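Lecture 7, part 2: worked example. A protein chain together with NAP.
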Amino acid sequence: MSLITKIENYKLYINGEWIEPISGEYFDVVNPASGEVVSKAAAGDERDTKKAIEASYHAFPEWSTKPAAERARILRRLSQLLLENEADIARTISLEVGKPIQQAIIEVKGSAEYTLWNAEEARRIYGETIPAPIRNKRLKVIRQPVGPVAAITPWNFPLSMVIRKIAPALAAGCTVVLKPAELTPGSAVQVCQLAKQAGVPAGVLNLVTGNPVKIGETLLSDKRIRKITFTGSTPVGKQLLKQAADQVKRVSMELGGHAPLIVFEDADLEQAVASATQVKFYNSGQTCICPNRIYVQSSIKESFLVLFKERVGALKVGNGLDGNVDVGPLTSKNALEKVKSHVEDALGKGATLIIGGKEPVVEGYKEGYFYSPTILCDINESMLISNEETFGPVASITTFDSEDEVVEKANNTDYGLAAYIFTKDLSRSVRVSEALEYGMVGINDIGLAVVEGPFGGVKESGMGREGGPNGLNDFLESKLISTLI
Ligand code: NAP
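Predicted complex, written out as C-alpha cells:
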C-alpha cells in the first residue's frame, strides 16, 4: 500500500529564506510503518550552521527590544496558525514518527496552547525594586533575554519539543537556531513556515537540519550563541554539557527518564490499570515519562495482572495513520532492536512473559518496525530493563511488600524525571510523593505534561524546567542596576 504522492525536499530556513544546503545534499526521511521515503531533508553542516548563527546574532538587537506586547501578538498568531493547520501537521508527525493520528492531533493542539501560554507570559517579564541599605541609593533588577539560543530536539514529540523551546525563547526576546531530529524534520519545517506567516522577522528563527555532530559542535563553539536548550538522551546531553562548559554557556537539559509507577494494595485497581496502560503504551512507549518499572504490591499481583493483560491485549497495533490504532511502530530500526534486546535479556535472566514479546505482522506493512504490546513480570535488578530506558511498548512488573522498600527501589537509579503512585491513602500519597527523587510525581494521575506546570527532571534526567509560571526564566538573565542619587 502506498501512502506517498509527492516527496518534498525540505530546505534550510536561514534569515527568513528557504535555502539549499551548501553541500547540495539531502537525506531520506522514512515512514517507520511502511519503510517508504516520505521526504528528503537538507544535509546541513558547519557552514550552514555558521550562516544561521550569523542571522540569529544580527536579528537579536531588534527582536530583544521589541515591545513585549508585539512579540506576544506574533506568538498568538503562530498559535492560531498551528490550529488552522492541525490536520496537515498531525499527518506529518504521524508519517514520520508512526504515532496514531489522534495522538498527533493532541500534540498539535497542545503545542498551540503552549505557544499561547508563552505569548501571554511575554507581557509578564517583571523586574523588581529592592530596598537599598543606604538612603541615597536605589536598587532595581531588570530581566533581559540571554541572547541567541541553540535548540536541539528529539524525534518522539517532534512538534511539541520544538515548540517547548522556541515559544518561551521568542517570548523572552531571544533569537533561535533550531536543529530538529534527523528522523522527524517535517513538523519543524512547518513551524518555520507558519512562523514566517505569523510575522516572526527574518533571522529570529532559523532551522538547520543535517549532521548532528557538526551542527552541534558549531553551535556550541560559537561565542555568539549564549545558551543551549536540549531535549534528548542523557548520554548526548552529557556530551553537550561538557562542550558548553568551555564558554560557560547557559544550559537547559531535558534528558532521559526511567519512571517508576507504583500501585499500592489500597489503590483503585481499575483506575491504576487503565492509567498504567495509557501512560505505558502512549506513542508506543517512546515517551520520556512513560513508566519503565511498574511496582505492584505483592498482595494484589494476581488481580493486577489479570486486568492489565486484558487491557494490553485489546490494544490495536498498526499504522498510525489508519485511524483506529492504539500502538504504532517504533520510530526506527535501532529502536526496535533495543526493545528486542531488552526483552531477550530479561527473559534470559528469569522474567516471565505474560503477553506480547514478538514482532506482529501488520497487514500491508511488512517493512514496519512493529513490536507487540508486551508485559513481563518477575523482573529483577540485574536486567537491562531495570536500569536503562527501554523506550518501547514493554511493561515490566516487579512486586514489593512495604512502602519503604518500594521507595528505595524506585529511587535506586541515576534518572529522576517522572514517577507515579496509585493509592487511596492520603497520608501515604503525601509521604511517598515527597520521598521520591523525581522532578514530577503523579498521584493517581498520569497527566504531567501541562503547560501550567514546570516540566523537567532531577539527577541525570536534566536541569531546568519547561512551562509553568517560571517557564521563561531559563531564557532570561537578571541584571542588578544600582544608582547613587
Ligand atoms: P538523542 O539521540 O539524544 O537526540 C536528540 C537530538 O540531539 C537530536 O536532534 C539528535 O540529532 C541530536 N544529537 C545527537 N547527537 C548529537 C551530538 N553529538 N551533538 C549535537 N546534537 C546531537 O535523543 P533521541 O533518541 O532523539 O530522543 C529520545 C531521548 O530523548 C530519550 O532519552 C528521551 O527520554 C529523551 N526525551 C526527554 C524529554 C524530557 O522532557 N526530559 C522529552 C522527550 C524525549 P539526530 O536526530 O540528527 O541524531
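The longest helix spans residues 101-122. The chain has two domains: 9-255+462-484, 259-454. Keep this in mind for problem set question 3.
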